[in-house]
Design a protein that fits this description.
Elements lengths: L3 E3 L8 E5 H10 L7 E5 L5 E9 L3 E10 L8 E6 L5 H13 L3 E6 L9 H18 L6 E2 L3 E2 H6 L5 E6 L7 H8 L8 E6 L7 H9 L3 E3 L8 H15 L1
Parallel strand pairs: 1-3, 6-7, 6-11, 7-8, 7-9, 10-11, 10-12
Antiparallel strand pairs: 2-5, 3-4, 4-5
Amino acid sequence: MTERYFVASRIAGPAATLAAAEAHHLAHVMRAKPGDRVVLFDGTGGEYVAEVARVDRSTVQLAVLSHDPVERALGVAITVACSLPKGDRQRWLIEKLTELGCTSVVPLSSDRGVAQPTAEALERLRRTVIEASKQCGRNRLMQIAAPRIARDFFAQPSAGACRLIAHPEAAGSLRDVLSERASPQNAPVDYVLAIGPEGGFTDDEAQLATGAGWTAVNLGAPILRVETAAVALAAAVALMR
């Protein structure tokens, strides 16, 4: 695949400008010269073939040659709401959810949660989304939403969505639930998947969720880390489509 770069502002004309980290990478790492061709995307869909017109100190000016409306998104929206793990495990989680085609991630603050995402940490995760999108060919960015309190998030109505909460005490298996939802008459418009922190959601949180219409699913006997559970659940939904 041709080298891909993210343009922070919407591309809407014959010219585009790369700035900040994207300009640095193209100009100083790839040592681009006028006439070199790259692929651009702005996160709103489709991609553009462009040619380097001028390399400045902190920006790269490009001439947009053509637009390809290609989409590599799933046919269903997947929101992953989870208590974020610590350290570099956050970055790995966001990278893999981006590759799987998830639509958005909602960091949850739960009773047993430890990592509390700061504004700076969330911005780093949004940069991870861009880097992962460049690598995997996504043209629409996965969104990192503002953190939510788990109890409030569970109580929020979501008409038409299949809402699944991972809970080790759940009687229903993930396979059974997804098999039921796979039939055309039961296929939801989107999925919302909730994964708790190390130690899982408390029984009170899980009961609040199921009382609000969520379906509790058991991911199996092994105890999974947050990021493993989130990726496993998202992959099961994404690859079913």
